[in-house]
Design a protein that fits this description.
Layout lengths: L6 H13 L2 H8 L3 H15 L4 E4 L2 E4 L1 H24 L8 E7 L1 H6 L1 H11 L3 E7 L13 E4 L8 E16 H7 L13 E3 L5 H7 L10 E4 L3 H9 L5 E4 H4 L5 E4 L6 E10 L6 H17 L3
Parallel strand pairs: 3-4, 3-5, 7-8
Antiparallel strand pairs: 1-2, 5-11, 6-9, 6-10, 6-11
Length: about 300
């Protein structure tokens, strides 16, 4: 091709990569399947290589497509950031702000904070990306993030806001049925709630709890909010935030001396955004509200 493919071509490519089929990508983008297919063909001709091969499961990306994937994702993120920035006046607290946070923080704490922000600034619109993966603020996949690890990049503005402490909890009805464990070894006789997939953070945390591993769990789920609700439902004993558990008088904090893990928390944004009113207002409000929740 003598001309550079348009943005629409790259957007279609990213959508097919994400969805695994032309029809799903067309639905996601509000386009027709032939249009998506035409875009993929245009990009293949532009780069001189195949991007997808058909399989029983749909379209499988080639090695070339996988190599292009991070660049396509960066384009999509940049376009989304451009749209967010263009909405609303930069010198007023109005427009779209995309916030990234872990599942637990996003479910247990942010809804109430954002509800108050919306009442104070009705021109603000929020996009909430809940994932335990760290969104890349440098590429503007999010405008503001609540992180449980300290960012090291110099281009980011980070404010520490205290810690969320983790501990063993159970519903009082469960403990009435099964008894209260006096030490960690007693957990073997209980229904335990825990993770399904082990992560580096989990491996580090579990060093303090020998025998507390996946094989011992009666419920395995990689969603902190689901684990918390299982504890509240009386399924068994699990680890959750102590500040969240204190909101429910039926939840009992047990084995306090055996396990008490603080998770430090930061509110972070790119330094280029700190002079925009909408981002500064949300950043300051998140830091203040989460700081009030956190335990020092």
């Amino acid at each position: 091709m003598s001309t550079e493919p348009s943005w629409d071509v790259y957007r279609s490519f990213a959508a097919v990569l994400h969805s695994g089929s032309l029809s799903a990508a067309a639905r996601a983008l509000g386009m027709t399947q032939p249009s998506i297919a035409r875009h993929i063909d245009m990009l293949e001709r532009a780069i001189g290589g195949r991007l997808f091969v058909r399989s029983q499961r749909g379209l499988s990306p080639t090695d070339l497509a996988l190599a292009l994937h991070p660049h396509a994702e960066a384009l999509v993120a940049a376009a989304a950031a451009l749209r967010r920035t263009a909405q609303g006046r930069p010198d007023q607290p109005e427009g779209v702000v995309r916030i990234s946070a872990s599942q637990a923080v996003g479910v247990l704490h942010l809804p109430a904070i954002l509800a108050q922000l919306r009442q104070t600034y009705p021109g603000l619109i929020f996009e909430l990306s809940l994932s335990d993966a760290v969104d890349d603020l440098l590429q503007r996949r999010a405008d503001i993030a609540v992180r449980m690890t300290e960012p090291k990049q110099q281009a980011l503005v980070a404010r520490p806001v205290g810690s969320l402490r983790l501990g063993f909890h159970a519903h009082r009805d469960y403990l009435a049925r099964r008894g209260i464990p006096a030490e960690v070894a007693d957990l073997r006789a209980h229904d335990l709630i825990g993770f399904d997939t082990e992560t580096p953070f989990i491996r580090t945390a579990m060093r303090h709890l020998p025998g507390f591993d996946r094989s011992a769990f009666a419920l395995r789920v990689d969603n902190d909010a689901a684990q918390f609700e299982a504890i509240r439902a009386g399924f068994g004993i699990g680890i959750c935030q102590t500040v969240a558990a204190r909101r429910d008088p039926a939840l009992i904090h047990i084995l306090r001396d055996a396990f008490d893990l603080p998770l430090r928390m930061w509110v972070v944004m790119h330094e280029d955004l700190r002079h925009g009113d909408r981002y500064r207002v949300v950043f300051d409000a998140l830091a203040k509200a989460l700081g009030a929740i956190a335990e020092r």
